[in-house]
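User: My advisor, Dr. K., asked me to get a structural model of this assembly before our group meeting. I'm new to this, so sorry if the format is off. These are the inputs:
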Amino acid sequence: MSEKAYGMTVGKKVGNGFMATILNTIMIVFSLSCIFPLVWMFYSSLKLKREFNANIVGLPPAPTLDNYKQILTNADYHIADSMINSVRTTILSVFLIVMFGFVVGYILARVKFKGNRIIWLMLLMGMLIPVHSLLVPIYIVFNRTGLNNQWYTLLIPYIAFGMPIAVFLIHSYLKGIPIALEEAASIDGSGFTGTLFKIIMPICRPVMVTIAIIQTFACWNEFSFALVLLRDVGLHTVPLAMTQFTGQFSSDYPKIMAAMLITMSPIVIMYFGFSKNIIKGMVAGVVKG
Amino acid sequence: MLTRRPPLRVIIGYLMIPLALYIFAVFIPLMTAAFYSLFEWKGGPNKTFIGVANYVTLIKDKVFWLSFSHNLYLILLCVIGQVGIAFVFVMMINTRSVKLKSIHRTFGFFPSTIAAVYVGFIWTMIYDSRRGVLNWLLALIGRDDLKQVWLNNSDLVMTLVSIPLIWQYIGYYMLILLSATSSIDKEIFESAELDGANAVQRSIHIVLPMIKSTIIVCLVLCVSGNMKVFDNIFVMTSGGPGNDSMVMAMYGYKISFIQQNMGYGSAISVGIFVLGLLVIGAMQLFSNKFSKD
Amino acid sequence: MKRSKIILSLMLSIVLAISLLAGCGGNETTTAPAADTTTTTAAPADDTDETTAAPDASGDGYAGELTLMHFSTSEESQGNGGSDGFRTVIANWETANPDIALNQTVLANDEYKTQVATLASADDLPDVFLLQGMNTKLWAEQGLIMDMTKIIEDSPHYADYNTSYFTPFTDGDKIYGLPVLTGGTCTVIVYDKAAWAEAGFEEFPKTWAEVEEANEYFTANGYTESIAFGNSGKWQMNSCFLSTLGDRFTGPEWFQSIIDKGGAAFTDEPFVKALDYTGMLFQSGVFNDDFNAINNEDAREYYISGETPAFIGGNWDVSYIGATLLETDPERYENTGFAVLPQPEGATGSENSQNIGLGYAVAINSKLADDADKLAAAIDLAYYVTGPDFASYVAENYALGGLTQVSNVDLSAFDQFTQDFYNYSYIDTAACEIYDSYVDGAVWDVLNTELQNLTNGSTDGATVAQLTQEAYEANY
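Assistant: The format is fine. Below is the predicted structure of the whole assembly, which you can bring to the meeting.
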């Protein structure tokens, strides 16, 4: 066990160990800070409004489930309806965003045709549109066409505004994938549609999963379109239902957080529960090129 | 690009529905806004055509240009903070020495899923002058002289409101970059011994070029997102003190809804859109030049 | 070749879209000047006046849908007497009118304002909704809301109305709504009588000089400052401070002249003085140093926790402070008193004023003029929710008052805190106007933003007045 004999390796190991500790610490601190809001929301939901207002970050002095009881028993809050609406809207929107994004992204990346660049530019423009100050025109357009205040109303803006990101991500992902694969398939007699769905789609799985995750949360949380385009309380999505807890001059934040945790629970559990599978899915599609 | 192009009707068939939907929900409202921006319109059925007068006002509107400068500052901080840090974190997660990889991947994304009002809450409490963590830390290290009402400091307020934004979206870009690096051979990350200089060089010279197009998408996302940023800042400061943390989208919203000047509000949306195109265009020129060098 | 074809077709479709919109827009503008629309709305309104008397008695001549939008959410009604009363009377009305399907859209206040503004812009307002005072003139001009002058005069409860509440909803000699919910003060000093007695003041000081004197005592004796205030939302300084302090300098005629465009200007000397005085006060250390970084909800916690011996806010803060102290600190609850703002030096107006009013009114969509039965139902609803049933409900349960006055309110059932606040709000003080119930949102938005700069010491009263005046001239 002479120090000299192991000098080099130990030194290097200590160096590595030191480096590794720093890296690990940074990542752990970051991850903890990211999860803190969830923890904070949970323990805050066990407070009364006045306890929360008196001390926003403190632990609940006398934890209570009152907020949960009230939310689950008061029919005025229509939590269940709004969740059904949100689930339906989110699932349909995300599915269509991913599919449209995939198809459009693939065509823009691989097929040379006049107008390719224009479409690309148009999609880019969509990302620059300030939604908040466009609410009135959007309302007017939807109202004129009678498309507002329907169960499918929100799908339209969600898909349209979600598509550019999806297209760009697919587009950029495909740039890293060699074209030889498709050319080979094409030579083997596979048609365009066959190649698209049988060969390219599995390869794109990691990025499609990423798009799905991003868009699921985006659609679930979207507020402005829902506010302006829906009028029937029966069509309200979760973020709209949450606003009922906000008063003109005071808001019951612990109750809002309890309601948020209840309504977010399916999607958060899904995300955390399946995160391993999701990540596996992201890695499974890897092609060594 | 494919050498054997599929028939045009197939392409049109695939593109028609998504693009029609897109044009209906994105372009027609934008056109409508462009059209309304030519009117004096205080909300309601009556409008008066005033030509480009709203744009003349916009060009002279000091608050709008102040807001634009705030947006540019935010973009600068967020490109470095969000995309930059996300890239570094992704490199770190891909090294062998970082443990709990899946936890970092899962947790990191979480803040971007919470509504802005809660993120605003937490950070307002960090900055709070009496009960806040920041002043408490300063007292702890004996720098009571630095304690202040943070969000009321005109010079610092833009930086202070951008920090929560950066923190919130690091995980978002991490997720995107991770999916891009998933197509890179693991051995590239793991072959070399972990050694500071090597790791950095490897990241810059090997990994960066491989995911360059994804990085560009991230930058475009980051720039466009920050051109229209709204919620977080609204929750934390409402643009105050005065207009010291006003940003363009919030200003447009205020003009349209609080001041009920829908015509001018529409002109502001068009302004934000055009400035966004210019900034992205400038960015692309810059990156083209950069990659040629 | 092909490329240019695609560009061409794209351009064509854009042109098509624009022309389509232009067509629609053209119809909307219909080259009809404002005068034209007012006459068209006025005429049917007159027609219906004859019909109102009959269905008014029965109120159930109409069967069908009636849409109503308001912001008294179930949550809001817990602890807010006005909302609770409003929801209660709506439910009563629904039961009494089973043939009418009352289709309610209830949103929280912020969202309500956004949606109503959107609907107004698209000329698609619901049948009955709540109108904010400062929108009255604008929307009346646009022909969106019905002239209710005759309807109000024909009301069975007209004799009991507190007519001063109508002013924010008046344009010229026309009234556009029945003020709704409860009238509450927007500016009240809530103070700890025991603490101020220790500082040598048996009641709250009458001058700001005395407040500064007390401040020396307080800061030397464990308090961080004398008065807590929160203005991060920007509207608080206007609604809960300047509106009353301005009245002390300018008197009510000046503001009436601002409303009527009668020649008064924000740059008039008394108002500039009020601004400078406000700036000076907030720089003097009497208030918490973070007043521009926290909102009223945080500031009142300073009072509740005992850090600060007084707080300035509105009636909504008082009900929260009362409910909280009752549970956490009954002694402070007993000791809490209410006072008007001290008189500033050099001010010549009323020494006892506080701003109070009803911020919203039940308004009726002008399109209902075409459907007499539906209109009658809407009018019946408007009478009912602002009438004696509502007023007695809020008086008996919350010691609050609305549009319809109830005689002989028996306060003895309420504790001292509630009685004191009732007396402060309705009996012992002189009423003045709430600025932002009038004029135009654009003016107040500019003033509110500049007030933050002013109270931070980064600008002066004359500049603020100048900018506000510019916004006033441009928008009103």
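One thing worth pointing out at the meeting: Chain C has 18 helices and 14 strands.

User: Perfect, thanks a lot.
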